[in-house]
Amino acid sequence: MPPNLAMFPSTDPAGNEPGTGCLRQFNEIAVYHNTLLQDAIKNVQKNHPDVRVIYADFFTPVIRIVQSPGTFGFTSDILRCCCGGGGKYNFNMSAGCGMPGATVCEDPSTHLFWDGHMTEAAYHFIADGWLNSINES
Question: Mean pLDDT across the stretch 96-108?
Fold first, then answer.
């Protein structure tokens, strides 16, 4: 995400994933966390068969958007915030939206990130995926 990329710039190209441009270590932590979470959910369901726990995967849809933004109607400069204070990711902690020096894109619905947070369009895509998976099960 732009705040992480802006605040923890990697000078080593191997620190960024080639398919996403995201920080490799941050993604590895997210994948590890999600694996442990899914294992814990399986354990709860095994020990409590009358309980239904729904796992809402946030990581995978975001990665899918970052890998193929055009497929989902997003701009190709996917890691750049719509509203921010310049730089490679249009993110600057001292120039947030509404502050002097901040810029705003023309169409937020084509951006994954607003100001380091997801845009409404991004959350809509993710929520649709969750709701569709619940309806299928």
Answer: 89
**Pairing state between β 103-104 and 83-84:** antiparallel
Judge contact between 111 and 119, C-beta under 8 A.
yes
Residue 102 has which token pair? 């901040």
Condensed to tens digits (0 to 9), the pLDDT of residues 64-82 reads: 999 999 999 998 899 999 9
User: Residue 46 sits in which domain range?
Assistant: 2-136
Residue 90 to residue 84: CA distance in whole angstroms: 5
Per the document, the length of the chain is: 137
| CA-wise closest residue to 119 among 95, 66, 83, 88 | 83
Q: Which residues pair with 86 in a beta bridge?
A: none
Question: Rounded to whole angstroms, how far apart are CA atoms 118 and 68?
Answer: 16
How far apart are alpha carbons 52 and 48 in whole angstroms? 9
What three-state secondary structure class fits 4?
A: helix
State pTM to two decimals: 0.83
